[in-house]
Amino acid sequence: MKLVKIALIGALYTALTMAIAPLAYGTVQFRISEALTLLPLFSPLGIWGVTFGCFLSNLLGFLLGTNPIGLIDAVCGTLATLIAALITHRIGQIPFSSLSQSKARLTRALLAPIPVVVSNGLIVGLELALVFGGNPGESLPYIWAFQGISVAAGEIVVCYTLGMLLTFALYRADLYKRLFSETRTA
Q1: Is 186 part of any domain?
Q2: What is the DSSP letter of 99?
Q3: How does 18-29 read in b/e, with b if 16+ C-beta sit within 10 Å?
Q4: What would the pLDDT profile of 107-125 be if each residue is shown by its tens digit?
Q5: 172 lies in a domain?
Q6: What does the alpha-carbon distance between residue 65 and residue 105 come to, in Å, rounded to a whole number?
Q7: Mean pLDDT, residues 86-113 taken together
Q8: Domain range for residue 119?
Q9: How many CB atoms lie within 10 A of CB 60?
Q10: Is residue 35 part of a domain?
């Protein structure tokens, strides 16, 4: 059952990425699928689901010609997603015992996108800077900063809008417990 849930998350991530493929790749990225990167907040299954989905999306994008970065993105972009997912999962485990349940959930929800924004901004930003380079006279740190800010901006928009909506929907009526529970239904 765990593998099925991981595969479903990965498939949904891939479908959402491919649905807007021209916006999902390149120097300016806007992936609605990145809203799913907050799922590790609720379960380790989310870690592997979004990581698998990112790898598959980047690989398919390369094979279909929509991902100009190619196989490098399948490795580096996936690494950025895995790092962010692992940290996001740890945020979900912080008890915040001095806060009420609703305030603890709000705090986790507000913190959860930060690893996604930072990891993708740094790693994918560097990847883009190295691949697309810019003018020979420009130095790598400036290109990296520009590309990183561009990627981070897209992550902020998606994670703090669609990602928040998804997070609060899953918190509502403890839906995340039913989705990620290990019990089987007949």
Answers
A1: no
A2: S
A3: beebeebbbeeb
A4: 999 999 999 999 999 999 9
A5: yes
A6: 40
A7: 97
A8: 2-180
A9: 16
A10: yes
Task: CATH number of the domain at 11, please.
Answer: 1.10.1760.20
Q: How many domains does the chain have?
A: 1
The label of the residue with tokens 């998606």 reads 158
Which residue, 3, 10, 8, is CA-closest to 37? 10
User: And the tokens for 121?
Assistant: 């901004």
Structure tokens at 115: 């690893």
> What's the CA gap between 170 and 103, in Å, rounded?
15
Average predicted confidence (pLDDT) for the chain = 94
Two tokens at 81?
């997603």
Q: Match 């691949």 to its residue by tokens.
A: 131
- Under 8 Å between Cβ of 66 and 25: yes
Question: Does residue 115 lie in a domain region?
Answer: yes
Banded model confidence at residue 70, pLDDT cuts 50, 70, 90: confident
Cα 117 to chain centroid distance, Å, stands at: 8
Q: What is the pTM of this model?
A: 0.93
Tell me what the mean pLDDT of segment 82-108 comes to.
97
